[in-house]
C-alpha cells in the first residue's frame, strides 16, 4: 500500500468515526484522535495532503503551518464536533 492509498483509506474512515463519535460509541474518540494524528503527520510530510475532515486534497502553503482542512466549512465542522464532545 502506498502512502497515498493509506491516507485515502484513513480519510475514508474519518466520516465513519465522526458518526461513531456522535453516537458515543466507546473507543471512537481514541481511534479518531489516532487517525487524525496520523493524517496530520502524513499531510505535514507531503507537499500536498488531505483534509482531515472530508478527505479532499489539500494544497499546502509553501510557508507556515500545514493546513489540516480544505476550507472553513470543514474547520467549523471539526470545531463543532469537538465542542459537542466536550459538552457531553
Ligand atoms: Zn474538507
Sequence-ordered SSE layout with sheet pairings:
Elements: H1 3-23, H2 28-45, E1 48-50, E2 57-59, H3 72-87
Antiparallel strand pairs: 1-2
The structure holds zinc ion (ZN).
Zinc ion binds next to loops.
Summary keywords:
single chain, two-stranded antiparallel sheet, 2 strands, globular, binds zinc ion
Quick overview:
The protein has 88 residues and is mainly α. The chain has helices spanning 3-23, 28-45, 72-87, and strands at residues 48-50, 57-59. It has one domain.
Structure description:
- The structure is a single chain.
- With 88 residues, the chain is mainly α.
- The protein has one domain (3-87).
- The chain is 62% helix and 7% strand.
- It is built from 3 helices and 2 strands, in the order ααββα.
- α1 (3-23) packs antiparallel against α2.
- The chain starts with a helix and ends with a helix.
- The mean pLDDT is 81.
- It binds zinc ion.
- Residues 51, 53-54, 56, 69-70, 74 line the site of zinc ion.
Amino acid at each position: 500500500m502506498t502512502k497515498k492509498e493509506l491516507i485515502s483509506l484513513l480519510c475514508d474512515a474519518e466520516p465513519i468515526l465522526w458518526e461513531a463519535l456522535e453516537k458515543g460509541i466507546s473507543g471512537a474518540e481514541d481511534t479518531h484522535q489516532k487517525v487524525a494524528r496520523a493524517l496530520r503527520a502524513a499531510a505535514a510530510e507531503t507537499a500536498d495532503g488531505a483534509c482531515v475532515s472530508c478527505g479532499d486534497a489539500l494544497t499546502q502553503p509553501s510557508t507556515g503551518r500545514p493546513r489540516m482542512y480544505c476550507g472553513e466549512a470543514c474547520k467549523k465542522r471539526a470545531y463543532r464536533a469537538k465542542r459537542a464532545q466536550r459538552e457531553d
